[in-house]
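Course assignment 3, question 2. Fill in each field.
Student: A.L.
Task: Predict the tertiary structure for the chain below.
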Amino acid sequence: MFSLFSSLAAEDGLPSSLKYLQKTIMQIGNFKFGFISQKDSGEKDLLDYYSYFAEYKSKHFLRQIILGNYRLAFGQGILFAPKLGMSKSAEAVTVPIKKYTEIRSYTSSYENWFLKGSVAKFSVANFYFIPFFSKIGLTANLSENGNITSFDETGIHFEDEKKNNVEEKIYGCEISKMFKTGKIGAVVSRSQFNRQFENRSISHDYFCGSTFYLFNYSAFAFFGENAFADNKFAAVNGFKWGKDKLRQLLLFRFYEKNFPTWHGNPFSSQSSFDNEIGLYFGTSFLPSDKMKLNIYFDLWKFPQTRYFEKMPTVGAEQFIQWELKSKKNSWRFTFQNKNREKYKSFEGDTKIRDLNRTLFRCDWWQFLSFAVLKTRMELVAEYLPENDFYQRGILAYEQFKIKKSKFEIIARTAVYHSQILLYMYENNVDGIMQNSIFSGDGIYSFLLLKYNLVRSVEIQFKIADNWFEKEKMKLYFQVVSKF
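Answer field:
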């Protein structure tokens, strides 16, 4: 297979408005080769970011080997996992349990926390052994004495001299054994940065280790990972029971403060998962093939200080989603409430306050003979109980979609009126994930076209614009070819 992706986006207000993405992947028998490059708006270098790999797979002793850029994923993702994976979704029982492919070539345009070097997978009977090595440059914000204060994860580099100013080296291995009912394994590794951290409670040279397991017995499943890194402890352990019509999940997590989170992404209420203790319960009920109910409850605590909150804080989230289906219609009703303690300013007074955010959403799909119509109505409210202060937002959109053998068309128009930030997932050309953020009053539209010129070549085009904001139009053009 050979794939080529190229896209252009017009954006103003930056030194260069060109945004470019190129992805080439070629497979010949058991071998696969790839080269990905990207330039963001404002960057001068056309190859500001590039990724490459050569991969070999077989069914023999050497199952897989990757030279170049790759990613690792073991257990429940405490030490190694894809950074863009999510913890919670409407699939309340399945998504929290991590089931990763252990090693993969890195084909993403996300410019952070992948590995660069070599990794291999060997198998003997039901035992698997994965050694790995990585040495890569990272972009960090440095203090006056040259210590690391934080890492720049935007992927945007306007000043070349600040790019890749820190070197990270990792080496280690994973060993696991497969059973008929599950798997157990262990990981050991060493991580080294060539600069120290300004926060001396974070080490620049440390060892990591974890053990993990996943077993399924009929209607029951046990899973977890327990890890040590930089003399700190982290754990995720859970139990799932039920099958068919009613399934339930209970999950407990504990992450010590300043546990290294650089390459991990386990279940958590936040992106940087250290300094958290939490308990999650989810259930999925399917009374018929036309009805589904997902519910989850999540409680967590940050036992030590974090960011601006100079004391322990807590949070809770409740989620309910009900789906109904018929031959020509489908409905989805969603309720979500999140209550947490947050450092927030109100009328010039800044302190830790209770912040309550509630979402009500209704989605309706109409399946016509030639197209699918989707209607969304969404209401979001934020409330500060101490000050009896409300802020609200309303979002509605209508989407039209036609998908035939040769082409696909998606058109959407959204209207919003909001005092707070609203988030909307947006379809895009292949390889780009996008969430639009709205506030104030406005109308936003996009049109996405995909046309298959011949069996192996597809043209993709998108135009998006906010009606009442000048110079905000975005254009994307992409060619995808497969041989």
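Instructor remarks: Residues 1-15 have pLDDT under 50 and may be disordered. The radius of gyration is 24 Å.
Grade: pending
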